[in-house]
Amino acid sequence: MEPILSLQGISKSYGPIRALNDVSFQVPPGSVFGILGPNGSGKTTMLSIILDILKADSGNFSWFGQPGSPATRKRIGSLLETPNFYHYLSAVNNLKVTQAISGRGTPEDIERVLETVKLSHRKNSRFSSYSLGMKQRLAIGAALLGNPQVLVFDEPTNGLDPVGIAEIRALIKELSAQGKTIIMASHLLDEVEKVCTHVAILKKGTLLTAGQVDEVLANEDIVEVSAANPDHLRTVLEQMGGYSQLKQDGRQIQLFFPIGSANMEEINSYCFRNSITLNQLLLKKKSLEAKFFELTND
Amino acid sequence: MLSLIKIEWLKIKKYPAFWWMLGIVALTYPGINIMFYNVYQQISTSKNMAGEIAKMLLGNPFAFPETWHSVAYFSSHFVILPSILVIMLVTNEYNYKTHRQNIIDGWSRSQFITSKLCDVAIISFIITIVYALVATVFGFYSDSSSAYRWAEQLYYIPLFFIQSFAQLSIAFLLGYLIKKAFIALGIFLFYNLVIENIVTAYFTYKLKMDGVSRLMPFEMSDRILVAPSFVGKFGNDAKATYDRWIDAVPAQIALTVVFTGIIWLICYAVHKKRDL
């Protein structure tokens, strides 16, 4: 299947600062594609380039197999960096401008998206009177106009309260379930881990890794075990072999196996044969946070 | 194009500063003309010889068809008022970052500049309407006996539009390049009111190089609407100067159109390349 978005060798400098360095990856259709990176890693610069706000120094990108153009941008609902609206216009009038420019949606659609982002009760208030969270909601609403098949969200939960964050997360999952492709930049790892199917990690403008979340995260199987006597358990497990590393954290022992090689039944029966009854046996994927720190730490 | 105008009109009509500007223009244009009309009235209604001579010399600058010319000339001095609005409209886009959002939502970069060109055209059009209304009212009010000549010299209406559009385009260029409203406004006012006047006077009177003066950005289009015809009635020299000005108007129009065209080409070229 043709990728929704494809980047080839994108580089961008601001004077002496290299913001993006030869970045290439592809976003498959129907994916929720998380772009991760610490502050200043080039996430927003990259999104700005694919939305024609910034010009890349070299490299190119394509949307739907075509070079980026106004026509391709009209098919994408985008929220970049901050909610950008006319301060003196109401939510409805701001969305009318968005609608007229993008050609996405109808007047009825404006009511629908305002309902979705829970702004109907303030739809005629000026944008300048909105709270940070409401502004963010309006920007998400604007992106949803006309029900586009592709959405680009840059830090979508910025400024939202915990309830708002949960709502946006649910909304992203719902949109994903409808088959939409969502490209989302974030530094909130938990957020990405909960909703993304794919992830790309950037550090100082360089792409460290990109792919399916499972592939990027799970290069090791981690098995957590514990028993009433952890020291005895450890002694027994040390004689078992087959794993690459053993760590003890208080009463809990972690065994690291090459991906796909941990056999839970085997471990259980081995311990049982050695007169140990396990009170915990758990297969864990490496958390995104751990992976992120591993990749981005010098 | 029509859709761009519609979108810009939606942005403009809800902008409070637009209505303030329109209100002030709607007071200023009649105001300045009433002032000059009163001066004319005082001179021409005095019962002595001087009054009679003045009446004969001046004619009635506010009767048809001279009203089109006189009101255009006096009103055109207040281009600063709509200029403030033009600068605000472009710098707002930077402030609100909507200059980015418009592109993200699907405009091309050149469509964005075209939309701003529409802004300048819309505002020029509106102030031209205000001018035309004021000139019409003066025409009928000051001398109803010449009302039948209303259709003469109607070409001052498009000339007023061209001059306004040209000078507002300069305001736009400053706002567009400088991005900060107050700095752009400051430079615009200082240049328009002080620097260019000094430079123009220096070239015209000191160096006797009027050919340079007529090329100055504002002077170029100022000379599309020259002073009303009565200034040419004070002796042969004045008449010769006035005739020379009038004869130069077509050339000044051509220069203005070219200069304004260059301003917009610069905006299109810069916007095509620059990071937003």
From TrEMBL, chain A:
Residues 5-229 form the ABC transporter domain. Gene3D superfamilies: P-loop containing nucleotide triphosphate hydrolases. GO terms for molecular function: ATP binding; ATP hydrolysis activity. It holds the Pfam family ABC_tran. It comes from the Bacteria. InterPro entries: AAA+_ATPase, ABC_transporter-like_ATP-bd, ABC_transporter-like_CS, P-loop_NTPase. SMART domains: AAA. The keyword Nucleotide-binding applies. PROSITE patterns: ABC_TRANSPORTER_1 (PS00211), ABC_TRANSPORTER_2 (PS50893). Keywords: ATP-binding, Nucleotide-binding, Transport. Belongs to the ABC transporter superfamily. This is ABC-2 type transport system ATP-binding protein. It comes from Sediminibacterium ginsengisoli. The lineage of its organism: Bacteria, Pseudomonadati, Bacteroidota, Chitinophagia, Chitinophagales.
Automatic annotation (TrEMBL), chain B:
The chain crosses the membrane at residues 20-40, 71-90, 117-141, 153-174, 181-205, 249-270. Keywords: Membrane, Transmembrane, Transmembrane helix. Signal peptide: none annotated. It comes from the Bacteria. Pfam families: ABC2_membrane_4 (PF12730). The keyword 4Fe-4S does not apply. This is ABC-2 family transporter protein. The lineage of its organism: Bacteria, Pseudomonadati, Bacteroidota, Chitinophagia, Chitinophagales.
